[in-house]
Amino acid sequence: MLDEVRFIVNHLLDKAPFIGLKFQGSNDGQTFDDLWTVDAQVHEGWNFYTFEDGSKPAYNIYRFQGSTSGSCRVGEIKLTGIDSINDNNPTYSCTPKLILDG
Question: What pTM was computed for the model?
Fold first, then answer.
C-alpha cells in the first residue's frame, strides 16, 4: 500500500509540461488507474502527494504518464508505503530473497 509519492524536478524553466502529468497504478501492466494528477503547484525541487487513509492504493506497478513533450523529465522518484500480500488464507508461505549490494 502506498502512503506517499515524491518526485524531484531539476532546473524547472516551464511548469506547463508537468501540469496534467498523471501518476498511475496497475496490476497487469496493461490497464492503469489514475491515482494523482500534477497541478499548477508543481515547483523545482521535491514535489509530493500523500494518500489519505482509506484511499491508499495497492498495485504491483506504478508509473508517471504524460501527454506533453517533456512532462516526464523527472529527476528522482521516491515511493513510501508497505509491502503487502493480497491473500486471505490463515497462513502464507514465502521464500526470502537475499540481495547483496556491491
Answer: 0.77
User: How far, in Å, are 1, 3, 6, 53, 59 from residue 82 at the CA level?
Assistant: 5, 8, 15, 13, 11
CB 5 within 8 Å of CB 74: no
Instruction: Read off the pLDDT of residues 20-79 as tens digits, 9 standing for 90 and up.
Output: 999 999 999 999 999 999 999 999 999 999 999 888 999 989 999 988 888 778 888 999
Q: How far apart are the first and last CA of the chain?
A: 29
Adjacency order of strands within the sheet including 2-9: 45-50, 2-9, 76-81
